[in-house]
Design the sequence.
């Protein structure tokens, strides 16, 4: 026994690293002073396991609080989401094993170093313990290093146990000292591995059997209502999907109804992994505890033109539609990338009733009338020729169709009614029919063995185009077409029954909620794995003035293209830069103007320096993984100065969906136009125009004390309307901050106005001619030079054939590809070794 005397108590990491230098043997057993070895510890057997398994790098023991082994403390280490600190916290697994088999080797992300066995060479290769820890997380860090650097795993062997009187030593420390130490350990671990653990949890989010998360997956569903007498269709769809998801994932389910019994407003996301929102009017801003741990999904089954009108629509992480037609509409009109997840049926529920039922109802329709005419009403005369039944609320029985209306029908009774019906009429309402969305009535009735005749030709056509057997559903447009189909299928039982069996089999194989649950999990899991969570930091001070900030509109366009490319993207205004939601971001893009951001090590941090380079020190630049500079010349100079920081050129750009030639009669046509706030200074572009006597029109704030009122045409032009003013103006003016002009930073206004086909006058910045050609005329910063530029602009004739400005090279989509390439570059470095 060799005793190493130290002057004082070092950290666990430092002491073990010091001891490692003196160790003479090839294997190392770490053993806390509060561990009791018993006959069940079987250390020699553990040595044999280590010797026979070169893929094992660490062996931990099952630890108990008591000698009788009734109170387990440690069977391995996994992670749980800590909402208070926004990271996946390492936690002991204890008492979870139900299939204990003596000698079975179980793999875990980590094991406790209270009692653990290693090869000395492995510990030396990884550099031992990280000494930044002070009694906390150092053993988890060690196991991560063994896995990521050496490709070896941590295991616990069933039946190898010891007793651990945990935390007895800490009574010597004050509570404040313990609290500070734990906070320091937490921050260091989170900064070091937060990114990687978020990515690994995404990898297993909906795959089942997540080794990086001790908790079962929990899925929440936001529905209109959720109780036995519910009538809202979204609830029944959500109910059936939830049953299938529970079977597929063994997950937990929670409903969040927005009205009726148990209504929950707002929704707490704290324990939710995936939140599926079924109703368009649900306000996402009311979500509580929304972090990177929760993926918020919109499943749009109808009202596809209404969903995007809500301000919070852009805040969903993922989008599903119930038809390809709706998917194409959202992509074309709003640039939304979505996946198709069609409605389906609980096959077992509807099939189970039809096996022993007599079909004594010729024709059935189940659906309510909510003060709006329905197409099915036009075919009621055709229905009364047979034994027909209409179920639902809102129908006026009257005398015209005696015996037709049966009143409301609870969902639980629908399968039994379908089991008695030969034909079910499908009346797809406008909110679904025009979008080619097939509703649950079709799938349910087919599963129950009914023939379905539908007015939804578009939806039926989409189902026939799938890569599965075609349904070839009979459809009608007029009452006469319906009469022909009713005669066909009610006059020939053999034909109808044969066709029903064919359709029923297709529904069973391809259109059950069991199939949809697999589709949902597979598709969403693929998206989750390849998706990054991105925050764009904008220095606008609050919600009330954000629309007055060009940086905010810049960020809006960037967010849109990032979402189109399949990523989660969010804009953080200045007060939210360090909010709780920001802890879970993978990438932070800082639009650096006047405000400084403090990067967090647990994220990939990119600065896009678009203005005010004089306000940024080299020390600040060096905190970022990559610095993107909106100036060719300054990017080169900065790269020479920052030898350890990656610097790339990334000019500003324009959004082609917002800025393009759009000359309209209803918009003022100005000879000379300037759009911008005074910034509390008399800006040169405006001053030169006034002094020269030009008829300048100014839109912006804080100009009253600088220029005559006759030149002020408004305080603000909405960004979505700005192209019309640029397009209609004979000349658009621009100027730069002095530091931008001197360092080659080209204003975003030039890209926007040039995209509108405008003739632009600006002070000279290096690189203008190469980018804009004859689209931009520059001056030397004097009144005379400005007058000459105006004369040249007035004399210039539009010449599109000789136009050198290529707007398609300077879009947010092009710039986003560069940013994402940098993200992938740094992510690959951080995830090296974690993929195995």
Sequence:
């Amino acid at each position: 026994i060799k005793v190493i005397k130290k002057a004082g108590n070092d950290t666990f990491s430092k002491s073990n690293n010091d001891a490692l230098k003196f160790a003479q043997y090839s294997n190392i057993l770490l053993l806390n002073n509060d561990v009791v070895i018993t006959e069940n510890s079987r250390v020699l057997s553990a040595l044999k396991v280590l010797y026979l398994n070169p893929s094992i790098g660490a062996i931990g023991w099952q630890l108990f609080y008591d000698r009788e082994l009734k109170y387990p403390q440690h069977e391995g280490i996994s992670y749980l989401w800590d909402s208070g600190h926004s990271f996946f916290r390492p936690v002991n697994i204890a008492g979870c094993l139900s299939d204990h088999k003596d000698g079975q080797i179980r793999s875990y992300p980590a094991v406790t170093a209270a009692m653990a066995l290693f090869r000395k060479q492995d510990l030396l290769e990884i550099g031992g313990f990280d000494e930044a820890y002070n009694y906390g997380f150092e053993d988890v860090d060690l196991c991560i290093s063994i896995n990521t650097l050496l490709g070896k795993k941590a295991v616990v062997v069933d039946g190898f146990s010891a007793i651990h009187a945990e935390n007895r030593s800490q009574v010597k420390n004050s509570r404040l000292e313990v609290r500070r130490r734990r906070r320091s350990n937490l921050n260091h671990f989170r900064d070091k591995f937060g990114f990687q653990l978020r990515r690994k949890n995404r990898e297993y989010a909906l795959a089942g059997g997540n080794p990086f998360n001790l908790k079962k997956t929990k899925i929440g569903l936001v529905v209109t209502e959720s109780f036995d007498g519910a009538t809202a269709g979204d609830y029944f769809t959500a109910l059936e999907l939830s049953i299938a998801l529970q079977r597929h994932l063994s997950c937990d389910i929670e409903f969040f109804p927005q009205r009726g019994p148990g209504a929950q407003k707002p929704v707490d996301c704290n324990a939710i992994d995936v939140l599926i929102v079924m109703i368009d009017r649900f306000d996402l801003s009311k979500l509580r505890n929304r972090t990177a741990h929760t993926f918020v999904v919109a499943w749009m089954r109808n009202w596809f033109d209404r969903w995007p009108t809500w301000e919070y629509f852009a805040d969903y992480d993922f989008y599903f539609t119930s038809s390809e037609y709706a998917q194409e509409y959202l992509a074309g009109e709003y640039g939304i990338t979505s996946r198709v997840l069609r409605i389906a049926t609980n096959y077992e529920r509807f099939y189970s009733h039809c096996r022993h039922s007599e079909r004594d109802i010729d024709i059935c329709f189940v659906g309510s009338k909510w003060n709006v005419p329905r197409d099915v009403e036009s075919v009621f005369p055709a229905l009364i020729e047979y034994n027909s039944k209409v179920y639902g609320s809102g129908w006026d029985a009257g005398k015209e169709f005696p015996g037709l209306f049966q009143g409301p029908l609870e969902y639980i009774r629908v399968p039994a009614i379908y089991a008695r019906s030969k034909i079910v009429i499908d009346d797809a309402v406008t909110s679904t029919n025009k979008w080619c969305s097939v509703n649950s009535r079709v799938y349910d009735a087919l599963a129950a063995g009914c023939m379905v005749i539908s007015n939804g030709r578009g939806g039926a056509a989409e189902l026939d185009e799938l890569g599965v057997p075609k349904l070839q559903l009979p459809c009608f447009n007029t009452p006469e077409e319906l009469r022909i189909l009713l005669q066909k299928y009610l006059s020939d039982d053999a034909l109808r029954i044969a066709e029903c069996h064919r359709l029923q089999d297709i529904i069973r194989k391809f259109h059950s909620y069991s199939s949809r649950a697999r589709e949902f999990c597979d598709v969403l899991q693929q998206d989750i794995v390849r998706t990054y969570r991105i925050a764009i930091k904008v220095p606008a001070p609050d919600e009330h003035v954000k629309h007055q900030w060009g940086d905010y509109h810049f960020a809006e366009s960037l967010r849109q293209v990032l979402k189109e490319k399949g990523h989660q993207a969010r804009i953080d205004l200045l007060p939210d830069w360090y909010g709780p939601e920001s802890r879970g971001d993978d990438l932070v893009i800082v639009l650096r103007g006047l405000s400084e951001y403090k990067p967090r090590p647990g994220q990939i941090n990119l600065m896009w320096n678009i203005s005010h380079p004089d306000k940024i020190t080299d020390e600040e630049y060096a905190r970022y993984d990559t610095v993107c500079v909106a100036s060719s010349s300054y990017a080169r100079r900065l790269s020479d100065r920052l030898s350890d920081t990656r610097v790339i050129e990334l000019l500003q750009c324009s959004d082609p969906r917002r800025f393009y030639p759009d000359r309209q009669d209803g918009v003022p046509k100005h000879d000379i136009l300037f759009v911008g706030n005074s910034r509390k200074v008399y800006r040169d572009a405006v001053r030169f125009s006034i002094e020269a006597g030009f008829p300048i029109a100014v839109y912006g704030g804080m100009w009253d004390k600088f220029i005559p009122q006759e030149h002020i045409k408004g305080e603000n032009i909405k960004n979505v309307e700005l192209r019309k003013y640029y397009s209609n103006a004979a000349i658009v003016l621009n100027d730069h901050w002095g530091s931008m002009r001197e360092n080659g930073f080209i204003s975003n206004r030039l890209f926007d106005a040039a995209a509108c086909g405008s003739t632009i006058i600006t002070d000279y910045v290096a690189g203008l001619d190469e980018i804009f050609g004859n689209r931009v005329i520059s001056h030397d910063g004097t009144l005379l030079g400005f007058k000459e530029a105006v004369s040249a602009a007035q004399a210039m004739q539009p010449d599109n054939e000789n136009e050198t400005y290529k707007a398609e090279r300077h879009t947010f989509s092009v710039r986003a590809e560069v940013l994402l390439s940098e993200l992938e570059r740094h992510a690959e470095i951080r995830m090296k070794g974690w993929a195995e």
User: Anything to note?
Assistant: The mean pLDDT is 91.
